[in-house]
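name: query_chain
kind: protein
chains: 1
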Amino acid sequence: MRLLIRAGRYDCIDSHNRNASIVGRIAAWLERVPLKIYTAHGFYFHDDQKPFKRKATILLESLLARITDYTLSQSREDVEFVTRRGMVPASRIEYIGNGIDTVRFARSKDRVEVEHALGLQLGRFRVCSTGRLVKGKGFADLLEAFSEFHRTVPESELLIIGGNITQDISPFQHEFQQLVAALGLEDSVSVTGMTERVEDYLAASDLFVLPSYREGLPRSLLEAMSMGVCALATNIRGCREAIRDGETGFLFEPRDKARLTVLMKRLFDSPELRSRIADNGRELVKSRFNEPRYVGIQVSAINRMLGNLGEP
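structure:
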């Protein structure tokens, strides 16, 4: 990385989470790059960590902050945390949120046509989730909650939009499939694998659930909300910024499978509530988490920092 930076003679290096940001910032510091920016998709420390590991990761972030000129944070809670603790001065960090393509992620296709094209069964109440099948995403919790929900709603189906890639830490797809079999849900649970048709699968779904234990500001949640799918998510940083409980979605505590089951049943029983929540979520994402706004904030901040380089 140092050789690449040296060859490019860059004025600015913008590194992103997690391992890449560690390597990028240290290399840029050693090569005396004038402006070192860190785009944080959620600081690595989080509430789900054990105390020692959490303290260690907070210390690591504190040390890296000393060689970082400016931080762009997707999470407002992270900004408040690090400035309150004095880890990063308020003048050197900025909240940027997140942003998605709200034109691509818009419900514009007929559901039956989409289901035919994807080979999905018709007439199913479809609960979905998007992401890599890794342990920290809480998919086992979702599966167990869905199992209880499925007892009372046998026409329901769980769709996982995603799978594993070779670089995943703690891959979970094989164990997930074993748990599906143990619960006798082979005919009601499917995993797409890596796909570029996320919006089509969302268009064929009734509920979206994000059961993750840690996030920055998750794109998967924003994409589902933008598609007009009623969303449920864990009550963690990032998710709380997109979901106003009972207004643009519903929150449940991490690992609270019983509460998740209750929420799914409530929304199944009330199409009107489901539709209202979905519409509110779509409008929120369009206004606050659209891609042009998100990119514009970053470009403006980087240009401002570059413009300040010549100042004494």
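note: The mean pLDDT is 94.
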